């Protein structure tokens, strides 16, 4: 088992998170390079194991305390599982569970941890991780020359399709008796009001940033979004000022989006924002600063004044 890779599956309301499949695809690649197996820790509904065909083994811990994420319960089971299985690498998302458990598991298991990871490769048998530091302003590359390691990976770093594989993994139950005496319990899941907008499912987005100047100017961008029949999204400064509700925010502290087309206006391209939209199939950006970081990821761009460009676009569409 020394060269196996273990993925922590995440789920909510009985649905596996997309980044679980992103991690599973990368786990198959890394484990294959080492000659090991791909394993998944499924802490929750056992019926979800059938969706994890990309794994060789699924370790299922099915208990009422695991139906929703509960830090105490997850840490107990996961720590005991890695001690039993002894994988070479544990992968989890840079999400609420991952940010809670990554460091805790690393300490309990005496393993190094790479947080905010965006890429993993095996070079001459050694795992090399690339990770964001200083909120993504710098990238660190480190060779993890250790018998075991933990990596928390930013969602969207790997293609989910690589982990959505048909198959019949071996299912192994995990004992959960220790969860009958927890000191904490799950009370309720409260989701933010969306106002009927879900930017994560949109095929196209029109997004606006600080360059819009004032809240009154949002109307200009909204006209384009309406003409295209798509939602209006925004970078964090727009949300922080209360000009649009939180569900419209694209970025690390907002929503990760992968539309077929992403049109941005007045967005400079801070790392926090790029993390949320860089995987769009087509990125078209407008910013008067030719050195704006947004142009590093844009497929097409222009440096026109958005207030000159947008009315022309709306007129053409109408």
UniProtKB/TrEMBL annotation:
Residues 5-186 form the Electron transfer flavoprotein alpha/beta-subunit N-terminal domain. It comes from the Bacteria. Signal peptide: none annotated. InterPro entries: DHS-like_NAD/FAD-binding_dom (IPR029035), ETF_a/b_N (IPR014730), ETF_a/FixB (IPR001308), ETF_alpha_N (IPR033947), ETF_asu_C (IPR014731), Rossmann-like_a/b/a_fold (IPR014729). Belongs to the ETF alpha-subunit/FixB family. PANTHER family: ELECTRON TRANSFER FLAVOPROTEIN ALPHA, ELECTRON TRANSFER FLAVOPROTEIN SUBUNIT ALPHA, MITOCHONDRIAL. The electron transfer flavoprotein serves as a specific electron acceptor for other dehydrogenases. It transfers the electrons to the main respiratory chain via ETF-ubiquinone oxidoreductase (ETF dehydrogenase). Heterodimer of an alpha and a beta subunit. This is Electron transfer flavoprotein subunit alpha/FixB family protein. It comes from Acidiferrimicrobium australe. The lineage of its organism: Bacteria, Bacillati, Actinomycetota, Acidimicrobiia, Acidimicrobiales.
């Amino acid at each position: 088992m020394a060269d196996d890779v273990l993925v922590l599956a995440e789920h909510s309301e009985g649905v596996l998170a997309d980044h679980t499949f992103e991690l599973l695809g990368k786990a198959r690649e890394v484990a294959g390079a080492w000659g090991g197996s791909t394993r998944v820790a499924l802490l929750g509904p056992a019926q979800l194991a059938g969706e994890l065909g990309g794994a060789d083994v699924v370790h299922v811990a099915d208990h009422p305390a695991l139906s929703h994420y509960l830090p105490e319960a997850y840490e107990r089971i996961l720590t005991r599982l890695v001690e039993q299985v002894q994988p070479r690498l544990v992968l989890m998302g840079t999400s609420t569970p991952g940010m809670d458990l990554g460091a805790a598991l690393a300490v309990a298991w005496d393993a190094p941890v790479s947080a905010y990871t965006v890429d993993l490769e095996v070079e001459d048998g050694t795992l090399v991780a690339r990770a964001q530091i200083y909120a993504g302003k710098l990238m660190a590359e480190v060779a993890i020359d250790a018998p075991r390691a933990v990596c928390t990976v930013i969602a969207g770093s790997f293609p989910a399709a690589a982990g959505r594989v048909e198959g019949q993994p071996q299912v192994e139950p995990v004992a959960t008796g220790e969860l009958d005496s927890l000191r904490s319990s799950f009370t309720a899941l409260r989701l933010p009001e969306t106002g009927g907008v879900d930017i994560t499912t949109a095929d196209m987005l029109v997004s606006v940033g600080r360059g819009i100047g004032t809240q009154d100017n949002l109307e200009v961008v909204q006209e384009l979004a309406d003409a295209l029949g798509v939602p209006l999204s925004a970078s964090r400064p727009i949300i922080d000022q209360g000009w649009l509700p939180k569900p419209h925010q694209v970025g690390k502290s907002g929503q990760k989006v992968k539309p077929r087309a992403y049109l941005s206006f007045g967005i400079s391209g801070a790392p926090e924002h790029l993390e949320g939209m860089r995987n769009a199939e087509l990125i078209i950006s407008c910013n008067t600063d030719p050195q704006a970081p947004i142009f590093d990821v844009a497929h097409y761009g222009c440096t026109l004044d958005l207030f000159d460009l947008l009315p022309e676009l709306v007129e053409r569409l109408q």
